[in-house]
Amino acid sequence: MKNDCLFCKIVAGEIPANKVYEDKNFLAFLDVNPVNQGHTLIIPKKHSRNILEIDDETFKEMMPIVKKLSEKIKTALNADGINIIINNEPAAGQIIFHTHIHIIPRFANDGLRHWPGGKYTEGEAEIIAKKIKEE
To answer: Pick the catalytic residue: 39, 98, 100, 102?
Structure first.
């Protein structure tokens, strides 16, 4: 547990949460600022900053829970779809620095739109792909 971490305090029971799932390693609860009703966060109880820091085994154990909760949320709320989102670092929108995955129920008329797609210039995609492969 990290003393100043909001999510660690929720795990420790110091801050209340509307829990929808809990086992010995993970906790899922409703987001207090939901994009849509049913917006759920799933976190490992063991602190890590984000996907760039979480250990592989914990992340691997987390994903079947995300899938199961996504199915339950979609059914319970009669949602038309589900977004699964992980924000990593401030530039990507991460606000709480404890690994967490957003499960956001989506509805055909919810008015939410995705970010705009861009285009690569001639040859740029090949250069970027090469940089990533070589890393």
So the answer is: 100
